[in-house]
Please model this.
Amino acid sequence: MSTTTEQKGFVLWFTGLSGAGKTTIADVVEARLKHRGSKIEVLDGDVVRTHLSKGLGFSREDRDTNIARIAFVANLLARNEVPVITAAISPYRETRDAARDLIGDGKFIEIHIATPLEECEKRDVKGLYAKARAGEIKEFTGISDPYEEPLDPEIKIDTTDHEPHDSADIILEYLEVNGFLAPAGELEGALA
Ligand code: ADP
Model:
């Protein structure tokens, strides 16, 4: 079937607290999509802040500018059939909704990595929560800055119940069920 080689553009828009697991899960999804022969580009929040958004801080205005830039690039890619994963905290609902409007409801897949704050703080992989609690970092999401949870995300995953590979399974299954990705084995079946 020729449809198996068609590539559709979409954006997997990850949102969640620092340390929730966005980058970790994005890495697994990226590898799994590549393995399946899909194109995929990742716009990771931390990486974007060292290049595209270098110099921006963490005020509401700067956070919104950062997210608007990520949405702008994600849209350029997705409209040219390049799937994208964005992995930035993106704490404000209004700003995420603006990204959804730009990219288009049919291509925008909001994924709330809904790991509770206590778990993120317990992990504290980068030591940032300890610094935020000590007042050494201001405007830290979840501690001294807001995080507005998505009201109706396409996918919601709490990583306290799911290993990264399980989370990737949930996301890939969503893509298959919704026609963004040919089911695994279909290509092999078509070639047999
Ligand atoms: P974020 O991108 O959301 O800031 P990261 O992916 O950078 O989060 O960090 C999440 C950390 O939590 C990683 O060190 C990861 O190994 C760890 N972790 C522990 N359990 C899980 C899990 N079930 N799913 C995802 N990450 C997990």
In short: The two ends are 12 Å apart (CA to CA). The helical segments are 22-35, 45-48, 60-78, 93-103, 117-123, 128-133, 164-177, 186-191. Residues 16, 18-25, 87, 113, 123, 125, 159, 162-164 surround adenosine-5'-diphosphate (CB under 6 Å). The CA atoms of residues 137 and 177 lie 42 Å apart.
